[in-house]
Amino acid sequence: MQTKPPLSFDEFFDYAHYPSLSFSPAGKYLLIHTSRPLWNSNSFENSLWLYEIENQQKKLITRKLFGAFKPQWSPSGNWIVLLLDENSDISAKNANHLTNVEQRIYLFSIESNELLPIGIGATIPLTITWSEDDSALYFTALTSWPTKDEDDLDETEWKDVIQYRKPKTKQGSTIYRIDIDMKNQIAPTKIEIIRNVSFLIGELLFVPSEQKLILTSITDILEKLDNNEIYSIDLQNVSSLVQLTYNEAIERDLQLSSNGKQILFQVFTLSSSNGKFNDTQLRLYSVDITNGQIERLGNDFDGNIVGYATKTDGSIYILGQWGTDVQIYSQQSSMDNSIQHRGWSGTYESIAVSRSSNQNCSIAFIYSSLRTPKEVYCVDNIDQLASANAITNENGLWTQRILPESKNFYWESDEDNRTIEGILHYPPGQFESTNLPLFLLIHGGPYDASLNHLQGNGYFWAPLAALNGWLVLEPNYRGSTGYGDQFLSEVRYQPIIRPGIDILSGVDRLIRDGIADPSRLAIGGYSYGGVLTNWLITQTTRFNAAVSGAGAAEHVSTWGIMDWPIHINYLMGGFPWEVPDVYQNSGPVYYLDRVRTPTHLVTGANDVRVPPAQSYILERGLHSLGVPVQLLIFPNEGHSVINSNEPWYGKIKVREELKWLQQYGHQSWIKTK
Question: GO terms for molecular function, please (predicted)?
């Protein structure tokens, strides 16, 4: 009997992702966006495919899709609006020259299979939405204007000195309308300005029945939550800007209800000052465009709502995370309980619903589990989830390779006997073996969770570590999503110490059960997982090796210079001067003299979430103490080095981390130095 070969390091990173799915208005086609790395050019190939439901065939529209924009069907379904990545050869150093480059919006014709460019000058489109028919588009772009402060007018006095919070120019957004003559495509398009707004626009949506534009406000630096709200503009009176929400939360994923009267949206909040919104898991709401009434949907579900789709009868499908699974639920109305639809154990993503019933495909989604790579699936009936058919095979190679076997693992926290769940990944051929070397891989967030799914990148690399001989534990510590609001909120006021106890309790349990070898322990994580890694190596010398990415070393300085200080405020329970003991008692830098663990560090040079200074502090401290340490800095990269536009960075990160684990993880450095 021929056995499968193990998945190789290079094959792991050749994983394809599916950023978006959408049905055409008549349900005849399914639009599929795929993304996969191109190693020779150090970039990602973002492709757009048109899948014909009846013939069950797909054809390529483009391999140069601009990945950050989701293509949109026109109201008739005859056109698709999209953006192309025409500047992929422009380096980050020269990105400022894009303001002088001719920009285009593209329309793909279903009838002729042609991509038609629409020139819009040097304006870079950020969001796009169709009007009530195929004759016009609305789009937004960043704009700026000079301030009128008299103190700033005299450049001879101020030279190039920057007055913080008093910029010489203010940033906002301009909303444009493009009129398109589909019968005379050679004729120049008419572009007019609808209006300017004094904030950055995150999403844009047109409401035909009310002739209104719906938009979200966003901000670069999140110091308070009331900068993020939903607004409407009446196109009959564009000077009227009406604020629809006052929830002091982050709204995203706007969708229009089937009757055209409500806007559905997801909410993420860190507790509001008005007391109306206090949960921090993702939630689903709707706002009535006509009267501003807000309703919570799926309110009987205490897990994390990671996605949703509207149906023609007014009901909704909800993608709900509970524990390590994401399953599909439905709710008829806000007054009804949600109903779980039984499918496979694992993670469902990006559900899309056709407006018409098709024998082959009226519901599409992305699915994966720890043994099944991501693909796009179709069913005609939601009750047929367990018999859904895959219509893509981008990750088919993974099904021909040996993958680790995994299972959920439970233990009690030593602090208060709270039950904690995690995922155990065993090396191939060693499922439920004992005395294995243990690698603890901690997720970020903390409002996130390790899930029953397969990914192939520099963040979700537990399977790759297991393929390299490690038993891997991914703990869903206090603060993780999918275990109820109470479980999540218990991280507040003890944002580092309490998760740390939860995690070490899991290690102790594995050792007591004889599963993990206490002499071969290693630890790692990225972002908040990096923070916890930095903290835990100051609390115990049991770990032989640590691999930490984009993790803070000192919380006051992080709060002072990061782009999301409200996050630290909430976790710590106040400002640094209000709860100084919480900030200091959980700061790794104050306990560095206890560290005996060789530590590998990575950071993005342009990270504003956890600035690279934090990694410099940690590296300098460990170097001064004589502890083996290595710091890798990825140029021009922000916080998401692992999800950057340069796939080699994530690959190099994990390659070097695996080397570090191999070099130091199997024996104590203290005993060998």
Answer: serine-type endopeptidase activity
Q: How many C-alpha atoms does 583 have within 13 Å on its Cβ side? A: 17
Residue numbers of the domain that contains 499? 403-665
Quote the pLDDT of residue 144: 86
CATH of the domain at 648: 3.40.50.1820
Residue 461, CA distances (Å) to 440, 581, 650 in order? 12, 35, 10
- Residue identified by tokens 């008419």 is 190
Sequence-distant (≥ 6) Cβ neighbours of residue 388 within 8 angstroms:
343, 365, 367, 377, 378, 379
Contact between 406 and 346 (Cβ < 8 Å): no
Short-list 183, 182, 202, 180, CA closest to 192: 180
Q: Is 540 exposed, middle or buried (0-12, 13-18, 19+ CB in 10 A)?
A: middle
State the Cα–Cα distance between residues 495 and 556, nearest whole angstrom: 14
Tokens read off for 621: 């401290």
Q: What is the pLDDT of residue 66?
A: 95
Q: Is residue 314 part of a domain?
A: no
Cβ neighbours of residue 59 closer than 8 Å, sequence gap 6 or more = 49, 50, 52, 113
Amino acid at 581: D
* 409 sits in which H/E element: strand 405-412
* Per-residue pLDDT, 94: 44
- Ranges of the chain with pLDDT below 50: 89-95, 97
- State the Cα–Cα distance between residues 312 and 507, nearest whole angstrom: 49
130: in domain: no
In a domain, 503, yes or no: yes
Tokens of 314: 């007014």
In 274-402, where does DSSP find H-type helix?
none
Whole-number Å distance between alpha carbons of 126 and 83 = 10
For the chain, the domain total comes to 1
Q: Is the CB of residue 289 less than 8 Å from the CB of residue 344?
A: no
Q: What is the structure's pLDDT at 95?
A: 44
- Using CA atoms, how far apart are residues 168 and 368, in angstroms rounded to an integer? 49
The string of DSSP letters for 10-33 reads: HHHHT--EEEEEEE-TTSSEEEEE
- DSSP conformation class of 402: B
List of E strands, 223-322: 230-234, 237-243, 250-256, 262-268, 283-288, 294-297, 304-310, 316-322
User: Residue 472, CB half-sphere, CA atoms under 13 Å: how many?
Assistant: 27
CA distance 282 to 306: 6
CB-based contacts of 526-530 (< 8 A; 24+ apart in sequence): 526/444, 526/458, 526/459, 526/550, 526/551, 526/642, 527/444, 527/445, 527/551, 527/609, 527/610, 527/639, 528/442, 528/443, 528/444, 528/445, 528/446, 528/448, 529/441, 529/442, 529/443, 529/444, 530/444, 530/610
Q: What is the enclosing helix (H) or strand (E) of 365?
A: strand 363-369
What is this structure's pTM? 0.94
pLDDT at 276: 56
Tell whether 583 is covered by a domain.
yes
Which of the 8 DSSP states describes residue 132? Answer: S
- CA dist., res. 90 & res. 549, Å (int): 27
What's the CA gap between 375 and 367, in Å, rounded? 6
Burial of residue 62 (CB within 10 Å: 0-12, 13-18, 19+) is: middle
Q: Using CA atoms, how far apart are residues 273 and 450, in angstroms rounded to an integer?
A: 30
- Provide the token pair at 451: 């899930």
Pick from 241, 250, 246, 245: nearest CA to 218: 250
* Cα–Cα dist 544/521, whole Å: 6
pLDDT of amino acid 461: 96
